[in-house]
Specification:
The complex is a heterodimer of chains A (574) and B (289). With 574 residues, chain A is an alpha/beta fold. Chain A folds into four domains: 191 residues, Pyruvate-ferredoxin oxidoreductase, PFOR, domain III (Pyruvate-ferredoxin Oxidoreductase, domain 3, 3-Layer(aba) Sandwich); 182 residues, Rossmann fold; 67 residues, no CATH class; 107 residues, Rossmann fold (3-Layer(aba) Sandwich), CATH 3.40.50.920. Chain A is 39% helix and 21% strand. An eight-stranded mixed β-sheet of chain A has the order 6-5-4-1-3-2-14-7. Chain A has a seven-stranded mixed β-sheet with strand order 9-8-10-11-13-12-21, sandwiched between helices. In chain A, strands 18-20-19-22-23 form a five-stranded mixed β-sheet, with helices on both faces. The longest helix of chain A has 24 residues. Chain A is globular. With 289 residues, chain B is of the alpha/beta class. Chain B has a single domain, classed as Rossmann fold (3-Layer(aba) Sandwich). Chain B is 31% helix and 16% strand. Chain B has an eight-stranded mixed β-sheet with strand order 2-1-3-4-6-5-8-7, with helices on both faces. Classes of the chains: A alpha/beta (574), B alpha/beta (289). Strand 17 of chain A pairs parallel with strand 2 of chain B, so a sheet runs across the interface.
Chain lengths: 574, 289
């Protein structure tokens, strides 16, 4: 195999597709991952792309394995270069072991470190009628190499394009067939090895990405109102919910700006809806006053914040875990909140679902903190179990003497909504009395602050404990949160150490009470974060006093790769 | 129905004696009483400012939110429960300044809400700076050489956006204001009522007397369905017309455009997600195609 220590089991392969925006790489990703899964391969796909609609250089990785694969890896076994510049774009990831499939006339003089196999993607597509079909030629080629049943491929491609004109459907099917022939010929003559055992259990599994999981989780949580302003990488959730809005009784509104979006969501909760916003970076920055309003009027609110690198516009299409502190401190004044951070696709579903119940129960803003990497990563999972989920509503029918901010033992006042019962529901962004009317009674002010903060106590007891991966008796503890779950887990598998464990947090705030116990048991601690300033490490220090001495941080806009985490951990674990 | 049902009883009102907000408060209560609006099904939504305090002097449901942000929650409240009567009410600084973007897009969205704007051409709560509607030359502690920004013309903007109901009233004329408000509240879709209101403390130019001298009612023969004429009358500056400038009745509302209300108008809080459909949607990811 390669010169570099490889995390890849021999029963897995990594395919990377590279080309310009507009060349249809996403179509290849979609078709191929589904086809491979249907024939029983575990698949993982993720993409990195430039912030442009045409041109540039983008790549998508598809890992194919007989075992579940769920993280980004540097390694490239097969590179499909749809355009010149792809090899240079991927840099060191292309090794002498990489098989590069490309079109000689297009790649021309580009230096190829690995084995080059000429595949006339564009020429074949042009012969069919238009070079736009070259991406489907590539789908066919790879399907041929992986020996997926050719009839299944043609059928799948036809179905995918079925909404288009019949000649386009036919031409795409022809492109797939022609590509298939090119692929199987080359697999034989060029000895492109591919020995991965399919698994029948995988065939019936589902393949989805983080954005879809958040969207499904929202529906399962009873979400019936989403207001958002489009911004990468959060837009996919709005698009998903808009697509399914009618079917699931949901209002999906594109607001004029993020300020409108969050204020709409608060209005919707006030009137009895279960609402969310979906946003990123600067969009969320605009929402912060609304977060504070939620704190003051004690409104439930679900905020999906898909992180991307900042400050300001930053790297719009890239990934980072850089907005934890923004979510933690967003909004003026002192009020409680909950921050959830999905690690797996399943988490994205179950935590988003749970976010609605938590928001309704505690009448606080609840964040679902994701990032571009999680949003755009696909893999197969057995299913999502709705029997584990329940829509818990906490709205009461009001009596005539109803007081919205009645002082209670646990700080939670029963929440009424206008038009349901005989009472009146008054909420105010000013400090208010128990009825919701403006007040400058400073003793009452103290009571109201205490009431709002008292809710945090129960929220802390309700916090989701971190998940320990690896041995219970560990010397070294690796800490991670959010979307780095799978990459750290795979690196742990590579290390195969019986004295090293990994503690993953899918709730980062309030910090689960088990945290200090896990940390103090370790002789050595290492934290891994996709940011520059170790924000979660700082939060742990603030809340527990424990300093995590070793840090592995990355902030160039890309997700960690399995190899990278493996190597860095090896260096630290000597 | 007696307008007293909306009274809060003996409360401390933060407005200055003689403030133009008092007659608006009283007139609105009378309007709602005459329209037989049930207070439990009424929601007043306001932002921040002197005018935005109005819900606190009103026995009803209310959402007193952030400065400039009354319209987005008002839109969402109506969308979440179309059975509610929703009135978004604030001052000129709140609606046209801080909330200017929402003003534009709420008109485009056309929710079935009434937007009442107390327009006193000055900032009251922050003590006397220029508002978007302050007139040219108006001197303040900040605009020391007088206002040189072109005054915002809410009526012309609303007509340009083809708002379904555009009117202007004067707080000093309770009877006419009530008639205009009644029509605005019963209008299906977004209705704007800009109400001239003297600020007795910070605006010594645009006083009760000044409004009486500079305002007149649109004549009975005026046709509010003529958009060009409406625009022309809204841009008059010498004398300022009052009344209903523009009406367009056949516009589809935001709620009517929401697909989920096509079959029935059951509010969102009475709806449950269809888990069987969700199960099928999840299943479709087995081979999504």
């Amino acid at each position: 195999m390669g010169k570099n220590p490889s995390p890849q089991k021999p029963d897995a392969t990594s395919v990377v597709l590279c080309g310009q925006a507009g060349q249809g790489i996403q179509t290849v990703e979609f078709l191929l991952t589904r086809l491979l899964k249907l024939v029983g391969y575990n698949v993982f796909a993720t993409k990195e792309y430039m912030s442009r609609v045409r041109g540039g250089m983008n790549s998508t990785q598809i890992r194919i394995s007989s075992r579940p694969v769920r993280a980004f890896a540097d390694r490239i076994d097969i590179l499909v270069a749809l355009d010149k510049g792809g090899v240079a774009h991927l840099g060191k990831r292309v090794s002498s072991d990489t098989v590069v499939l490309g079109e000689k006339e297009i790649i021309r003089d580009e230096e190829i470190p690995g084995k080059f196999v000429d595949v006339p993607f564009v020429k074949t597509a042009s012969e069919i009628g238009n070079k736009v079909y070259s991406n489907v030629v590539a789908v066919g080629t790879l399907a041929g190499i992986f020996r997926i049943d050719s009839a299944l491929v043609a059928d799948f491609v036809k179905k995918f394009f079925s909404a288009k004109a019949s000649d386009i459907v036919e031409n795409n099917a022809k492109a797939a067939n022609a590509g298939y022939k090119l692929g199987s010929e080359r697999a034989n003559s060029e000895k492109i090895e591919f020995r991965i055992e399919p698994d029948d259990n995988v065939t019936g599994q589902i393949v989805l990405n983080g954005a879809e999981a958040v969207g499904l989780g929202a529906i399962a949580g009873g979400c019936n109102f989403i207001a958002a302003y489009p911004m990468s990488p959060s837009t996919a959730v709005l698009v998903f919910l808009a697509k399914h809005a009618k079917q699931f009784g949901l209002i999906a509104e594109q607001a004029e700006d993020e300020i409108a979006a969050i204020n709409m969501a608060l209005g919707a909760w006030y009137a009895g809806a279960r609402a969310m916003v979906s946003t990123s970076g600067g969009g969320f920055a605009l929402m912060t006053e609304g977060v504070s309003l939620a704190g003051m009027i004690e409104s439930p609110l679900v905020i999906h914040l898909a992180q991307r690198p900042g400050p300001a516009t930053g790297l719009p299409t890239r990934t980072e875990q850089g907005d934890l502190e923004l979510a933690l401190y967003a909004g003026h004044g002192e009020f409680p909140r909950i921050i959830l951070a999905p690690g797996k696709i399943e988490d994205a579903f179950y935590l988003t679902q749970r976010a609605f119940n938590l928001a309704d129960k505690y009448q606080v803003p609840v964040f679902v903190l994701t990032d571009q990497y999680l949003m755009d990563s696909y893999y197969n999972i057995p299913s999502l179990d709705l029997s584990q989920t329940r829509v818990e509503k906490h709205v009461i029918k009001t009596a005539k003497d109803y007081k919205r901010y009645e002082l209670t033992e646990n700080g939670i006042s029963p929440r009424g909504i206008p038009g349901y019962g005989e009472g009146l529901v008054a909420v105010d962004s000013d400090e208010h009395d128990t009825e919701g009317h403006i007040t400058e009674d400073l003793d009452l002010r103290t009571k109201m602050v205490d009431k709002r903060l008292t809710k945090a106590r129960e929220m802390e007891n309700d916090a989701i404990p971190p998940e320990l991966v690896g041995p219970e008796k560990y010397k070294t503890l690796i800490v991670g949160w959010g979307s780095t779950y799978n990459v750290i887990k795979e690196a742990m598998d590579n290390l195969a150490r019986d004295d090293v464990a990994f503690l993953h947090f899918k709730q980062v705030y309030p910090l689960p009470k088990e945290t200090p116990g896990f940390l103090s048991k370790a002789q050595r601690t290492i934290i891994i974060e996709n940011n520059a300033t170790c924000q979660f490490g700082r939060l742990i220090k603030l809340r527990t006093g424990i300093d995590i001495e070793n840090r592995i941080l990355k902030y160039n806009g890309l997700a960690f790769s399995v190899e990278e985490v493996t190597e860095k951990l090896k260096e630290l674990l000597i | 129905m007696d307008s007293k049902v909306f009274d809060m009883g003996d409360i401390d009102i933060a407005w200055c004696p003689g403030c133009g907000n008092f007659p608006i408060l009283k007139t609105l209560k009378q309007t709602l009483a005459e329209l037989q609006i049930d207070q439990t099904r009424l929601v007043l939504v306001s932002g921040i400012g002197q005018a935005a305090k109005i819900p606190h002097y009103f026995k009803t449901n209310f959402f007193n939110g952030l400065h400039g942000r009354a319209l987005p929650p008002a839109t969402a409240i109506k969308a979440a429960n179309p059975h509610l009567t929703v009135i978004a009410e604030s001052g000129d600084g709140d609606m046209y300044g801080e909330g200017g973007n929402h003003f534009l897009h709420t008109i485009r969205r056309n929710p079935d809400i009434t937007n009442i704007v107390h327009n006193n051409m000055v900032y009251g709560l922050t003590k006397g700076q220029a508002s978007p509607t302050s007139q040219l030359g108006f001197k303040t502690p900040v605009q020391v050489a007088g206002v040189f920004l072109e005054p915002f013309n809410p009526l012309a903007v609303a007509i340009a956006l083809d708002a379904g109901f555009v009117a202007r009233a004067f707080a000093g004329d309770a009877e006419q204001t009530k008639e205009i408000l009644k029509k605005a509240i019963t209008h299906k879709g977004y209705a704007l009522v800009d109400i001239f209101q003297p600020c007795v403390t910070f605006n010594k130019t645009n006083t009760y007397q000044w409004f009486k001298e500079h305002c007149y009612y649109l004549e009975d023969s005026y046709n509010p369905e003529d958009r060009t004429a409406a625009f022309e009358r809204a841009t008059e500056t010498e004398k300022l017309p009052l009344g209903i400038f523009y009406i367009k009745t056949n516009k589809k509302t935001f709620e009517e455009n929401i697909a989920i209300y096509a079959q029935n108008d059951r509010p969102l809080y009475k709806r449950e997600p269809d888990m069987e459909k969700l199960r099928k949607l999840i299943e479709s990811f087995k081979s999504e195609n």
